[in-house]
């Protein structure tokens, strides 16, 4: 059976902040966009089961046997071992060489993880999470601490995942992966914008500027990446 996660009239309150949402996350790549402080991280914790709905509704996981959450906090918080390969990558119960190759860190195998930059650590934890291949993969701001080249590499890694549910929580508006569904968080309210390409603006309020520009020119991108916008512009300009 396909895995899915259902939010049933979810309400979570903490002090003056209230999060609300309904909808279903099916298999594929989902982008939950929205500004800083809108509730994306709180939603990630609720979906991971680390927070419980206390004011109403429910999070229902269907056939989800494994869940992995990568937090937005500094990647140093994920470090558990004294070496990159024999310790850190191996602690994920993976073949260390595969994880380091995916993260492009093969030359750093014997280093102390704390000698890596934040961007390198981010690449390592993302590679390990993807190779771990959970049914539900939750990525809170996975592009923070990465330069443009590393962001593009991370997007490519996400796009190669061909099973399970991947949910990216991000306010990134410059480098984005190909996705199947778009959601938005605005002041604690989760809104399902729908499937791509139909969900691309005008319904998507936090769309990247390059997508808005392409639409203003009459182009119809097939997905949300910069390359999709460029291809759409090329088609109309012949």
Write a structural description:
This protein has 238 residues and is an alpha/beta fold. The protein is built from seven helices and nine strands, in the order βββαββαααβαβββαα. Strand 8 and strand 9 (189-195) form a beta hairpin. Helix 3 (96-102) crosses helix 4 (118-132) and helix 4 (118-132) packs parallel to helix 5. The model has no long low-confidence stretch (mean pLDDT 90).
Distance between the termini: 44 Å
Radius of gyration: 18 Å
| Elements, N to C (H/E) | EEEHEEHHHEHEEEHH
Total number of β-strand segments? 9
Biggest β-sheet: count, sense, barrel? 6 strands, mixed
Total helical segments: 7
Overall mean pLDDT: 90
Label the structural class: alpha/beta
Shape: globular
SSE blueprint and pairings:
Elements: E1 4-14, E2 17-25, E3 28-33, H1 40-48, E4 56-62, E5 67-70, H2 84-89, H3 96-102, H4 118-132, E6 136-140, H5 148-159, E7 165-170, E8 181-186, E9 189-195, H6 209-216, H7 226-237
Parallel strand pairs: 3-7, 3-8, 5-6, 6-7
Antiparallel strand pairs: 1-2, 1-4, 8-9
């Amino acid at each position: 059976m396909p895995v899915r996660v259902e939010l049933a009239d979810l309400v979570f309150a903490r002090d003056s902040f209230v999060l609300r949402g309904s909808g279903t996350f099916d298999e594929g790549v989902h982008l939950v966009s929205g500004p800083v402080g809108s509730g994306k991280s709180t939603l990630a914790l609720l979906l991971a089961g680390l927070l419980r709905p206390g004011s109403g509704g429910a999070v229902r996981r269907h056939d989800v046997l494994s869940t992995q959450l990568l937090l937005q906090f500094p990647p140093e918080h994920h470090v558990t071992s004294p070496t990159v390969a024999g310790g850190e990558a191996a602690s994920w119960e993976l073949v260390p060489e595969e994880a380091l190759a995916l993260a492009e860190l093969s030359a750093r195998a014997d280093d102390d993880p704390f000698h890596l930059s934040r961007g390198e650590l981010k690449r390592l934890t993302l590679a390990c999470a993807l190779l771990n291949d959970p049914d539900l993969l939750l990525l809170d701001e996975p592009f923070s601490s990465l330069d443009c080249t590393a962001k593009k590499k991370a997007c490519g890694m996400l796009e190669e995942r061909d099973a399970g549910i991947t949910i990216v929580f991000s306010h990134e508006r410059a480098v984005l992966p190909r996705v199947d569904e778009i959601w938005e968080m605005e002041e604690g309210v989760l809104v399902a914008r729908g499937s791509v390409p139909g969900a691309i603006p005008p319904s998507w309020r936090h769309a990247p500027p390059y997508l808005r520009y392409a639409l203003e020119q009459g182009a119809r991108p097939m997905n949300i990446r910069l390359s999709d916008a460029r291809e759409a512009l090329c088609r109309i300009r012949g």
